[in-house]
Amino acid sequence: MKFQKGFYLGAATAAHQVEGNNTNSDYWVMENLPGSAFTDPSGIACDHYRRYKEDIDYMKKAGLNAYRFSIEWARIEPEKGRFDEAQVEHYRDVLTYCRENRIEPIVTLLHGTSPKWLISEGGWKAEGTVEYFTRYCVYVVERLGDLMHYVCTLNEYNMGLQMEAIMQKVYKKMGLNLQVGMKLTTDMLPDEKKKMLRAQAEAFGVEDIMGVHTFMSQADEESDAFLLHVHEAARNAIKTVRPDLKVGATMSLHFLDVLPGGGEQAEKIWKDEFSHYLPVIKDDDFIGVQNYTRSIVGPDGERPVPDGAEVTQMGYEYYPESVAGVIRRMAKDYHGEIFVTENGLATDDDSRRVEFIQRAVKSVQECVEEGLPVVGYLYWSLLDNFEWQSGYCKHFGLIGVNRETMERTPKESLWCLGSYAP
Ligand code: BGC
């Protein structure tokens, strides 16, 4: 069954993961340090910066009508206070090409990476970042806002707390038994880790070896609140210059599948992942839902993936209906538009992706039928791309990319997704 008229159906990417040669960004610095923990450096990525037309053509051919991509701050403002008009023109071309092909661009202003200079200035814990980021956002929407409708300020500003929880497990494995609320200090770290942090700090010209704060660093309560504050400031500034734009942010959210007696634990997790942000985001025009799997929650908290369950290349449980679970839960607390801005899986078996899309789409259509305000569904990702620390070995794409030649190969799943287009 096709989606109803007006529904946005498409795919998503992020600049650093597909464009290539993002040389003025913080990740470029970290990926290229000797002994870096990255599996691969991003390098040329998918060369999407030059090949975006070919990639948009595939979406058009499949019948998709929306494309979420991000504008790279490190390109627009490669040095503090120096804005590059030629890069604005590049993104104007991308936006125009989408529009010419009747593909709605859904624009993210910050997806993971920041200019290197921002990190040297204290990064995502420094008060100055509020002003720098807001200035960049206003600069972009003043020049390109005429080609946009939906703008996401920050991608997954709620991820920091989730990263912290993951890191706690890593520290435990390293034999560092940190109590809740206890801060990690340099002397607790193994020498190798210290060496790496020192090299990073030197590369950014930061004195404190624990002072490199990228957007995707783990967060504590204070930095979590700070990112929300950055979002709010940027949203309000964008609204002042372009009140016609729909402004929101995207969030990483699990479907909390609650076992008998797990209700209290689930509410606690939901509060950490979502509802404590509500006082600010209730005024957003939309929320971007990004979901990849479910979490089973019992009276004792989150359970591991059930024995024997199918898992994706990321180790997540294969559970296509989880996206609908998040939509239903969110709709109880939030009454603006809900936009699925990322949902998908990494696999080399495209038939599993086809089934995933069929089931996920069906579950979203059920939400629409129930009258929930879901306005779009964007699969992650359009291309097999740079999956951060994991490099190029995880394959999320609807389109394969030959790492030697950059040749594109559309997969069956691309046509499958397109078959639901309104
Ligand atoms: C991020 C993407 C990432 C994807 C798959 C999302 O949380 O926004 O950048 O590639 O997950 O791991």
State the main characteristics.
single chain, about 425 residues, alpha/beta, TIM Barrel, eight-stranded parallel beta barrel, three-stranded mixed sheet, 15 helices, about 40% helix, binds beta-D-glucopyranose
Description of the structure:
- There is one protein chain.
- By secondary structure, this protein is an alpha/beta fold.
- It has one domain (8-418): Glycosidases (TIM Barrel, Alpha-Beta Barrel).
- It contains 15 helices and 13 strands.
- The chain has helices at residues 15-18, 26-31, 48-62, 73-76, 85-100, 116-120, 128-144, 159-173, 191-204, 221-241, 263-273, 278-281, 322-333, 350-369, 412-418, and strands at 8-12, 66-70, 104-110, 150-154, 246-252, 255-258, 286-291, 294-298, 301-302, 337-343, 374-380, 399-401, 408-410.
- The strands form three sheets. Strands 1-2-3-4-5-7-10-11 form an eight-stranded parallel barrel, surrounded by four helices. Strands 6-8-9 form a three-stranded mixed β-sheet.
- A hairpin with a 6-residue loop joins strand 12 (399-401) and strand 13.
- The protein is globular and about 60 Å long.
- The model has no long low-confidence stretch (mean pLDDT 96).
- Beta-D-glucopyranose (BGC) is lined by residues 14, 17, 112, 155-156, 252, 290, 342, 380, 387.
